[in-house]
Amino acid sequence: MERNFTLVVLFAALIAVLGLVPPIPLASGVPVSAQSLGVMLAGAVLGPMRGALAVLVVEIIVALGLPVLAGGRGGLGVFAGPTVGFLIGWLPAAFVTGLIVEKLHGLHVGIAAGLGAALGGIVVLYACGTLGLMAVLGKGPLEALMLSLPFVPGDLIKAAIAGWLTATIARYRPGALLSRPR
Amino acid sequence: MLSLALPGTSWAHRLPVGLKFGALAAAMLGLTWLTAPLPLAAALAATAGLYLSLGRRAVAEGARALRPVLWIVAFIAAWQVWEGVPMLGLVLGLRICTMVALANFVTLVTPLPDLIALIERLARPLARFGLSPRLPALAIALVLRFIPVLRGRMELLALSWRARSRRRPGPRLIAPLALSLLDDSDHLADALRARGGLAPRPATPPQGRD
Q1: How many angstroms separate the CA of residue B116 from the nearest CA in chain A?
Q2: Which of A96, B117, B137, B198 has its CA 20 to 30 A from that of A137?
Q3: Do A80 and B103 touch (CB under 8 A)?
């Protein structure tokens, strides 16, 4: 119980700290922040429920007005803005990432985590983000999706890195991989 | 880690937290109903008035917090003009700016301790599920405590990487950071268990007979 609690808390802190890493611009000029990598990692390592809980802790801290989102953003205003879908979408993103790692237990953990991160951190996350854009901007699904497409290449890279990091953690701290209980 | 809340004891700081959040929720709902530019412009002017009533620092902070949204709003407005419906662009821009500014206002005038107290109050039903109601507040406090710790460790890892390599570290340093974090987690769990763990305390001390 205590260990699950501290893992959730520390992964929440990790997601917040990855928001402080300066974004790296891709060849296309679109900035890529490391923060959603933390979300993928939380799901892949902690499993669906605890991964989503770690994200929930981060979102509560954002709502409390602490500037823990990439670019020093935070506060209730983020939840009123057009990108709210991507913020709320982190919850199912971490959940689905963890679920894939858990369900595909026959697969190598790094590959399962990369697949999970791509499905959770890209497909599910962009679906939520697009719904949010549609709601705030009153746009159709295709137009709203177009707004977020430039970020897909960066997120594919992040999914691959999340897979590699999860495999590394599984090798050195197998007991901490709550998504694959032994 | 500093909260975005402004220090001070203005009229808005002194309002009860529940009232501020209730009013914000009502305002959000009201703003989604407004579809004409004039009432929305009035709402934005009223929001600006709220900021002005707190002085120059509040206005500067509000403008800073609004800046990332303004980019998106400008883009959307330009898009609507290009599609030949400039009025829709104006309505959307006004509504988004007002909503975000209002929400940021509540953040600016609500000190962190008030919010933690609100969370503890909302978490009280957790006791029914055998969890301590202090759990959410403890989680938040621990995250805020560990953000500077992890940040310092990341800088240390980057320094030792640079001492050994000319290449940029890239994301590979997240691996040792995550591994060290897992060890921290074990130590922290031991420390929590040594202090009584996370089980809820009995509300009243057991009554002895004498």
Answers
A1: 8
A2: A96
A3: yes
Number of structural domains found in chain B: 2
Number of alpha carbons in the 13 Å side-chain half-sphere of residue B193? 12
Residue B199 lies in a domain: no
The answer to whether B28 contacts chain A (CB < 8 Å) is yes
pTM for the full predicted model: 0.86
- Judge if B34 and B106 occupy the same domain: yes
- Taking CB atoms and an 8 Å limit, are A57 and B135 in contact across chains? no
Task: Evaluate whether B188 touches A6 at the Cβ level (below 8 Å).
Answer: yes
Q: Which helix (H) or strand (E) holds A24?
A: strand A24-25
Distance CA B104, CA A147 (A): 24
Do A36 and A155 touch, CB atoms closer than 8 A? yes
CA closest to B95 among chain A residues: A136
User: How far is CA A10 from each of CA A69, B149, B181, B193, rounded to the nearest angstrom?
Assistant: 16, 11, 7, 16
Domain of residue B158, residue span: 123-194
pLDDT in tens, B111-122: 888 888 888 888
Do B18 and B52 reside in the same domain of the chain?
yes
pLDDT confidence tier of residue A27, bands split at 50, 70 and 90: low
| Class (C level, CATH) for A2-21+31-176 | mainly alpha
Task: Note whether residue B5 is domain-resident.
Answer: no
